[in-house]
Write a structure and sequence with these properties.
By secondary structure, the chain is mostly helical. The chain is built from 4 helices and 2 strands. It has a two-stranded antiparallel ribbon with strand order 1-2.
Length: 135
């Protein structure tokens, strides 16, 4: 699907939009290539936008972490909880704080990995009953 999407996008971009005039990207040699953003006095609207986005993202991370914890801690998995049960949220928060300083995207992908990790570590017995494989 990825190959088809790239090929279709290339064809559309090359032939459908060929009459559109585009300015060339000009690099100013006198200015530095990268500049640090001015964090000293952000506009008020930017502060409130950041607060809103931070709140929504914190809800996303909280929900995603709790959903994956609920799936992993299913009684059928017969897990024993250690003393660092909520350590994953702390580690994700620390990593995201460090990534924020360097303007890098946040991470939160525990949902697909956690159930697969539990499954990979589990000792599962397989039985064949009436021609069907059961665990």
């Amino acid at each position: 699907a990825l190959v088809v999407a790239v090929a279709a996008g290339s064809v559309i971009g090359s032939y459908v939009f060929q009459d559109i005039e585009m300015k060339k990207f000009i690099v100013d040699e006198d200015r530095p290539l990268f500049e640090m953003a001015d964090f000293q006095k952000p506009p008020v609207a930017a502060v409130f936008a950041a607060i809103g986005l931070g709140f929504v993202l914190s809800i996303l991370f909280f929900m995603e972490g709790n959903i994956s914890a609920s799936i992993v801690n299913n009684p059928a998995n017969k897990l024993k909880k250690g003393s660092a049960f909520h350590l994953d949220m702390l580690v994700t928060g620390i990593i995201n704080a460090i990534l924020s300083v360097f303007c890098l995207p946040w991470v939160h992908g525990a949902l697909p990995h956690s159930p697969l990790h539990v499954r990979a570590l589990a000792d599962i017995e397989e039985h064949i009953d009436n021609g069907h494989l059961t665990e």
